[in-house]
Amino acid sequence: xxxxxxxxxHTATLSKQLFLPLILSQDPRRGxxxxxxxxxxRPGGSMVVSDVVPGGPAExxxxxxxxIVMVNGVSMENATSAFAIQILxxxxxxxxxxxKRPRRIHLPATKASPSSPGRQDSD
Length: 123
Description:
It comes from Homo sapiens (Human). The protein is mainly β. It has a domain at 30-105: PDZ domain (Pdz3 Domain), CATH 2.30.42. The protein has one helix at residues 81-90; strands at 2-15, 17-18, 30-31, 34-38, 47-52, 67-71, 74-75, 94-107. Strand 4 and strand 5 (47-52) form a beta hairpin. The radius of gyration is 21 Å and the shape is globular. The model is unreliable at 19-23 and 25-29 (pLDDT under 50).
């Protein structure tokens, strides 16, 4: 079997809600329940969900390791971490967050097809 990684795209609409941890929020009791890291100013360059707060709005919708592609229509590809955090902080009540997530799939091994008898390849 051959293993191949594909990228699935998911969009989650998150609403800020009252909960104790402060992550990506100006009000210490409100947020989307995620932490992010990366960006073009860090090794790897991708903006990644680095934590999902249990019981927070993102639980069950986003996963640690998701690559953030877009927030409310603003591209996060090649963005700095400071820019991404600022965009998330300006989302007053809701954020549409589009992520890409790697998924490994298994493909049956392919056999090289033998040349047809009586046929020769030439330049």
